[in-house]
TrEMBL record:
Location relative to the cell: Cell membrane
Domain Cardiolipin synthase N-terminal: 161-197
Name of the protein in question: Uncharacterized protein isoform X3
Keywords, ordered alphabetically: Cell membrane, Membrane, Transmembrane, Transmembrane helix
Recorded name of the encoding gene: LOC113688966
Organism this protein belongs to: Coffea arabica (Arabian coffee)
Top-level taxonomy: Eukaryota, Viridiplantae, Streptophyta, Embryophyta, Tracheophyta
């Protein structure tokens, strides 16, 4: 039984990463949507943690954990969350205009994340009852799907905190607080916040002194 379970988990993983092509087996739509949502989450977390989620004095760099989260999800971020200490260090305006921050601060990037999230949620949500019952059977029988669901739950649970952290760093908590309850909606809520949040260039307190003097 244990060997059969491991074999099933390996097969699902190979199908999801396209190592196994079209072999006649149709993957469960809910599982496929969940897998791609987990692929988007590290991208959303990068937009939330860079640069406002950086450690004080950059004592612990965030980018290695963000890269790790692309492979390990929430399990790759938890250690950074333990070591994290606010406030974030000041940032140069020129750094905001360079890669990767200019990409992560872009409203277009945020809109793509939101559109992809809505599409995946709709893909799973519109699946019929038989698909969901099949997913539930897989959930009960597969350790891989168990870990995947826990990963999804952890990323969704941590997101509102980092939305609030980013919101307060941008001095937008008085106007944007209504978005905090919406950030409880997995992926879509944080992505909506990323579209509506103000630019860091409008927050002099977070910019370095040299940038402020230039202004």
């Amino acid at each position: 039984m244990l060997q059969e379970e491991k074999s099933t988990d390996v097969y699902f993983l190979k199908k999801l990463v396209n190592i196994i092509g079209d072999d006649g087996f149709q993957m469960n739509e809910v599982l496929v949507a969940l897998w791609y949502i987990l692929g988007l989450y590290p991208f959303v977390y990068s937009m939330l943690l860079l640069p406002t989620g950086r450690c004080e004095n950059r004592s612990v760099p965030v980018w290695p954990f963000l890269i790790l989260s692309g492979f390990a999800g929430a399990y790759g971020l938890i250690l950074y969350f333990i070591f994290w200490r606010p406030p974030p260090p000041p940032i140069e305006a020129t750094e905001l205009r360079r890669w990767p921050l200019n990409f992560l601060e872009s409203k277009i990037t945020a809109a793509i994340a939101l559109a992809a999230g809505l599409g995946l949620m709709a893909y799973a949500g519109l699946s019929d009852g038989a698909v969901w019952r099949e997913f539930y059977r897989y959930f009960r029988a597969s350790k891989f799907i168990h870990l995947t669901c826990i990963d999804f739950a952890l990323l969704s649970t941590f997101a509102p905190f980092w939305v609030y952290n980013d919101m307060t760093a941008r001095r937008w908590d008085n106007k944007g607080l209504w978005l905090l309850p919406l950030s409880l909606i997995p992926l879509v809520g944080p992505a909506l916040y990323l579209i509506l949040r103000p630019s860091l260039l409008a927050v002099p307190a977070l910019l370095s002194s040299s940038t402020s003097e230039e202004k």
